[in-house]
Amino acid sequence: MTEKDYNPNQKENKAMDKQSKVATPTVAPRDKATDKKEDASMEVLSAEDKKKEAEIEKKAKSKVKEAPKKESAEVNARSIPVSTKVGAAICSFIRKKKIGDAIARLEKVAAMRKAVPMKGEIPHRKGKIMSGRFPQKAAGEFLILVKSLRANANVNGLEEPVIVEAIANQASRPYGRFGRIKRKRTHIKLVAKEQIKKSKKKLEETK
Q: N or C: which end of the chain has fewer CB within 10 A?
């Protein structure tokens, strides 16, 4: 091949000629009837899939049983740093009270605005009580317990919970440093139940 006949784009031109010679596949035109049939079959399949999904959801819901509603809320505190005598006095102070009223009372005790009635050789206080004290630290511990009791009552779905049980029992008392003193420890149990509203007819029958 001479320099005159040399063409740098000769290879590219040959490749283009080969591609043009290759016959493109022809696509037969589709009928409208066949298209409609395919669309209808797809709709039927989608409806069947929806039915299957609904059945699966029903089975799953039937397996998951609803948790039974609890009629009471409970708090068990172990080895609280409170004197058993003071704990028993505070328990009788908040027993048979609504949780909100009990919290308000304990806050007043912590602020030294209301005394807790107590027995024994204890100074007298002003008001309807004879003897009492202001156990601020113990009131703070009881406030934590009563607030957790309120949270448990809300979770259990109690509308107007009342503290039915308030019990203070003496716990094992550990020795302090060098075994000179014994620390004060108390187990406290609080139980709240929903307030039962008596109807007028029942009240009249009791009278």
A: C
